[in-house]
Amino acid sequence: MKLISDEMLVESYFKAIELQLEDEFVALLLDEIRHRQINLDYYRAGEAQVS
Fold it and tell me: What InterPro entries does the annotation carry (predicted)?
């Protein structure tokens, strides 16, 4: 997971939720987001551009 950018990680997380992928996969992404201390509220509010 170290090779993936923060933006790509967040985009993947939201897409995984949208596509209703496996809970374990979504949890893995969320764990990495928390590990990197990424503020998802910043992305949800539309303040950041996610490709």
Answer: Sda (IPR015064), Sda_sf (IPR036916)
